[in-house]
Amino acid sequence: MNIASTSPSTHSHLVLIVEDEPAIASVLEAYLRRDGMRTCMAADGIEALQLFRDMRPDMVLLDINLPGIDGLDVLRHIRDEDQTPVILVTALADDVDKLLGLRLGADDYVIKPFNPAEVVARVKAVLRRSANMHTVSAPIRVGDLEIDEQDHVALVHVQNKAIPLPLTLTEFRLLACLAAQPRRCFSRSYLIEQCLPESDALERVIDSHISKLRRKLQQAGQEDLIEAVRGIGYRLWQER
């Protein structure tokens, strides 16, 4: 276990680096510290989950190939407990592996070998998107759906009960974007630009996020709220 900081401020972001290759972990640590972030590092999945629960980091950089518990299982455990942003770091270039990680709730991914400066840029972009969600004060209401961007909460109101939706950051951004203009059709490229800026994600990655978002809405009794528009993208459909 190794914890390092370049700033005495307790307000700087804490990034948990989960990487079993010491050289790669050290490079990531150095670049993040150079940008004023605090870091903590784990070399396997068990240590990663222990540090996650003890330190409550603002961001997790998570390698997929780990000894013991692999990165995807670590991601599953994290998502069972919290919505902390997670960026996968992987040597697996297969799109299937990327999409699986995104379906499990990862917010972005980078592929080895990578430019460490790009990884830092991805981290800052995800953290910035998270912070920007606190700049809007008025909740969005569409039918039984309520989205409070300031408190980062999405609720479904059913029979005088408010049911929270357990959304990842990307799912929350997508839902907020669609709900801000009900009935408007958004292209996949627009959704990537608005909800995954500074990412090289393919357009079909949006389909993966939307699919998981729709399942969560359906589980809360909001079936068919998001409609696919053939050849274009998606819209949130609310009957007038």
Approximate helicity band: 40-55%
How are strands sequenced across the largest beta sheet?
1-3-2-4-5-6
Q: Can you write the helix and strand succession as a string?
A: EEHEHEHEHEHEEEEHEHHEE
Q: How far apart are the termini?
A: 56 Å
Which second-level CATH architecture of the largest domain applies? 3-Layer(aba) Sandwich
Strand percentage: 15-25%
Average pLDDT works out at 84
Number of strands: 13
**In one word, what is the shape?**
globular
CATH H-tier superfamily of the largest domain: Response regulator
Judged by helices, strands and strand pairing, the structural class is alpha/beta
Integer tally of domains = 2
Q: Largest sheet at a glance?
A: 6 strands, mixed
C-alpha-based Rg, rounded: 18 Å
Low-pLDDT ranges:
3-8
CATH class of the largest domain: Alpha Beta
Number of helices: 8
The gist of it:
Helix content is 41%, strand content 22%. It is an alpha/beta fold and 240 residues long. The strands form 3 sheets. The chain has a 6-stranded mixed sheet, sandwiched between helices. It has a 4-stranded antiparallel sheet with strand order 7-8-9-10, covered by helices on one side. Strands 11-13-12 form a 3-stranded antiparallel sheet.
